[in-house]
Hints:
Layout lengths: L3 E7 L2 E7 L5 H8 L18 E4 L2 E4 L12 E3 L12 H8 L9 H14 L5 H7 L11 H8 L6
Parallel strand pairs: 1-5
Antiparallel strand pairs: 1-2, 3-4, 3-5
Amino acid sequence: MDKFLLNCTINGQNISIKIDPDATLNHLLREELHMTGTKLGCGSGDCGACTVLVNGISVNSCIFPAFQANGSDILTIEGVENDPKLSRVQKAFVDYGAVQCGFCSPGMIMSVIRLLERNPNPSEEEIRRGVSGNLCRCTGYQAIINAVRSLLPFE
C-alpha cells in the first residue's frame, strides 16, 4: 500500500509525514508523533476522549481519516498551553474538581475551548450541549459545568 504524504500544522508546528492512507488522526498523533495527550477511548467516535480541533472544528480523531487533515491547522491538548502554566480552561478544571481520573479531560477541555471560541458567554444549557459529545464516568458533569461557568464574564 502506497503511503500518503500529509502536510499540516499541529500545535503551530509544520508537519510533513508519510502515513498509511487508512490511518486515523488519532493514530497519527499517538503512534507516529508520540503525542499521547489525545486519548483513545471507544475507537468509534462515541466518547469524545480523542477530541481535537481541526481548522477550529471539534473532531473525534479516532474516526477522522488522517489524510483529510492535509493542509489543516490542528490543535491538540499539548498545544493548548506552551508554557509551564495551565491554560485558564485547564486551571478551572483543576480548581473546580472537574478532573478526576483525567482520561476524558483532554477531549473535554478541547470541546470547552471550541465552545468558548464560538460563544464566550454560553448559558448552562449551551455548556451542557457543548460538552455533550464527551463522556465522563467520574465527575457527574456538575463539576465540569461549574468549571466552565467560572470562566464566563460577569453579567
